[in-house]
Design goal:
It is a single chain. By secondary structure, this protein is α+β, with helices and mostly antiparallel strands. It is about 30% helix and about 20% strand. It contains 16 helices and 22 strands. The strands form six sheets. The protein has a six-stranded mixed β-sheet with strand order 13-12-11-14-15-16, with helices on both faces. The longest helix is centred in the first third of the chain and has 20 residues.
């Protein structure tokens, strides 16, 4: 309050004693200077000047001032450019003449960007320039100017950035600035070169004209994983990516186990068709025997790994390493592993090593890196030679090819490569294929190699899928219990006027191939399941798609009266030359379960993705409701995932 009262008036200013003419007067100016230098602004100013001098003198000589990609441009000396200050805005002016002198000592590149401090007045829009013109102007632009105007006109502040050389931390002095242009074209994605193995959907066949249906079994699951990967990218899969049998066979089903004397058992069920009340679905399920783990023969496994440049993505080689690491824990100590890689050429990374030596195997996997072209044929030949050297009596040998399918070196004749793989399977070494990554996935090559190599094909898009294929289903994937498994169904024309096999288009066989043991077919691994679905139509049904024949009528024999059809299964024991035949009548009274209803929902899902003409008004809501109601036991959540993918596909199809 005292200070407040005192300051209310205007007192006379005190007279400075420094103005008096005394002997100490000359020292007053020195005293004022020292007081000023100890103030905060003075200290900040002098400290900044000192730091700038040190930076220019010590650090600046190591900076690289050349533009990207121009090793022949002049390198400036360490003198700093002139700076003009105007109303708080810093603008770059012409650089010193010494900056024109050349220096070729450094090799790193630098980039200069102009960042606006304030919004500039609108200017007339300039016509977009081509990329080549932009680069030419960038190279020829004078120091301190941005493309499209001076930095001062834009009210801009220049900020310099550069990536230092490895192991070097350097200060980047100002260099020619390039302002961003609004109309530059963005780089395009790599062209999609994926190729898929598929055939047109099976048509409806007239029983009186073609009563016998023959096909090879298929236990591959690649199509389901590709569909899931595509949907998760917010894109509907194309029809050629959809193989319905692989979608249906992706899921485990509770089929009855075979007896101790049988390699596998068959189960038949009949139910009304969800999408067509005038037809019925006949589902055939095959369950392979699952021997005890201790009874499995020793395994010789060759990892044939694609390390070409196309495998560089984390979801390719990176995921591949993680996937194979999961698998190691499931192998027994007496199993052996070898690793062969191929890129520009093939080589052996790991000689045959016992599975118990995990450290050595993991170190070999971790050492892999991607680069070069894809010499797939050379890699296959080396892998078969290594597998042949590992083989012994009573052991199982298998090559596990992990690739994105991009074979571009040494495969001038793809059919010749398939024939080579087919010959090698006669030696007892099977070939299975694991696909990784998207963009250049060659599913057609993968399917062909797996089918000719008596193996399976799977696509791995996540680590969870790797666990399913290489851990949960490892025994079935690596240990065969039946080779050349063929299915043939003869339909009774008196009870089935028309039929349609849903899926298995790429596995079709001629009728005479069924009894020919020289014709190759699919294999069943230990504990493996196979499901096939037919849609059949009774005579006189309103759902018939073909007109009846004018001449003659088909009648059932006394033996077959009332039967829908007759199921025949033919298979060979691994390594055997002659086949075994199993026959089962289809009465039509077999009951359906949640297992077969869920399989029907998945088959309907696949047909919706293909745009099938056989579904009528049946759509996404019906497929989702059927799958949800028949979900049954789902310990790993595979069926819940299927319902969610159906819902996702429904949303995408609405857009």
């Amino acid at each position: 309050m005292e200070n407040f009262d005192r300051l209310q008036g205007s007192a006379d200013p005190a007279r400075s004693s420094e103005d008096r003419q005394t002997p100490a007067a000359p020292l007053n100016g020195v005293r004022r200077m020292l007081n000023f230098l100890t103030s905060r602004p003075a200290l900040a100013t002098t400290t900044s000047i000192a730091a700038l001098v040190i930076g220019v003198a010590v650090i600046l000589p190591v900076a690289d001032l050349r533009l990207p990609g121009r090793a022949d441009l002049p390198q400036p000396k360490t003198e700093a450019p002139k700076v003009a200050v105007d109303t708080g805005t810093v603008v770059a002016t012409e650089a010193p003449a010494e900056m024109a002198q050349t220096s070729e000592a450094d090799s790193a590149t630098s980039v200069a960007r102009a960042e606006p401090l304030a919004e500039a007045a609108p200017e007339p829009a300039a016509e977009p320039m081509a990329d080549a013109e932009v680069m030419e102007l960038a190279e020829e632009a004078p120091t301190g100017l941005a493309l499209g105007g001076s930095l001062a006109d834009d009210g801009a502040r220049v900020r310099m950035e550069a990536a230092p050389e490895s192991g070097t931390l350097s200060y980047l002095a100002p260099a020619p600035a390039i302002a961003p242009l609004q109309d530059l074209r963005q780089p395009t994605l790599t062209e999609n070169t994926e190729a898929y193995a598929n055939e047109p959907a099976n048509p409806v066949k007239v029983t009186a004209e073609e009563p016998v249906s023959t096909f090879s079994i298929d236990v591959d699951t690649a199509s389901w994983a590709v569909i899931r990967s595509t949907l998760n990218m917010a894109v509907l899969p194309t029809p050629d990516q959809v193989r319905i049998e692989e979608m249906v066979n992706y899921f485990p089903y509770a089929y009855p186990a075979p007896t101790a004397e049988e390699a596998f058992s068959s189960t038949v069920s009949v139910m009304p068709t969800p999408w067509n009340p005038g037809t019925r679905l006949v589902t055939i399920g095959i369950q392979g025997a699952l021997p005890e783990v201790a009874a499995r023969p020793p395994l010789n496994l060759v990892f044939l790994i694609d390390t070409s440049g196309s495998m560089e993505d984390p979801n390719k080689l990176g995921l591949l390493k993680q996937s194979l690491t999961l698998m190691l824990a499931e192998l027994r100590p007496e199993d052996e592993i070898a690793i062969v890689t191929y890129a520009g050429s093939a080589g052996q990374v790991l000689p045959p090593t016992k599975a118990s030596d995990r450290a050595t195997i993991l170190a070999a996997l971790e050492s892999l890196s991607a680069g070069g072209s894809t010499a797939g044929a050379e890699g296959l030949e080396l892998a078969y030679r290594v597998a042949s050297g590992m083989a012994a009596e009573g052991e199982v040998s298998r090559i596990l090819l992990a690739t994105d399918g991009d074979f571009n070196v040494g495969v001038s004749d793809p059919e010749g490569l398939e024939a080579y793989v087919a010959r090698q399977r006669e030696t007892g070494t099977y070939l299975s294929v694991l696909g990784f990554g998207r963009g250049n996935l060659d599913d057609a090559v993968m399917q062909s190699l797996a089918q000719n190599g008596n193996g399976t094909a799977a696509y791995i898009d996540t680590l969870s899928e790797a666990r399913k294929v290489l851990v949960d289903q490892l025994t079935g994937a690596l240990f065969p219990i039946a080779d050349d498994v063929k299915i043939q169904v003869e339909w009774n024309p008196a009870t089935v006027a028309e039929y349609r096999l849903i899926g298995y288009e790429t596995r079709a066989l001629r009728r005479e191939d069924f009894n020919n043991d020289a014709v190759d077919a699919g294999e069943i691994g230990a504990g493996t399941q196979v499901t096939a679905i037919y849609e059949v139509t009774a005579p006189g049904s309103d759902a018939l798609l073909n007109d009846p024949l004018r001449y003659g009528t088909a009648t059932a024999t006394d033996v077959a009266e009332g039967e829908l059809g007759f199921l025949r299964l033919r298979w060979k024991a691994p390594g055997a030359d002659t086949s075994t035949l199993i026959e089962t009548p289809i009465s039509g009274s077999e009951t359906a379960t949640d297992e077969t209803r869920f399989a029907a929902a998945v088959a309907g899902f696949g047909q919706l993705l293909q745009g099938s003409v056989y579904l009528g008004d049946w759509g996404w809501d019906e497929a989702i409701a059927l799958a949800g109601s028949a979900r049954g036991d789902d310990p790993y959540g595979y069926r819940v995932e299927a319902v969610n993918l159906m819902r996702l596909a429904q949303s995408l199809s609405a857009n």
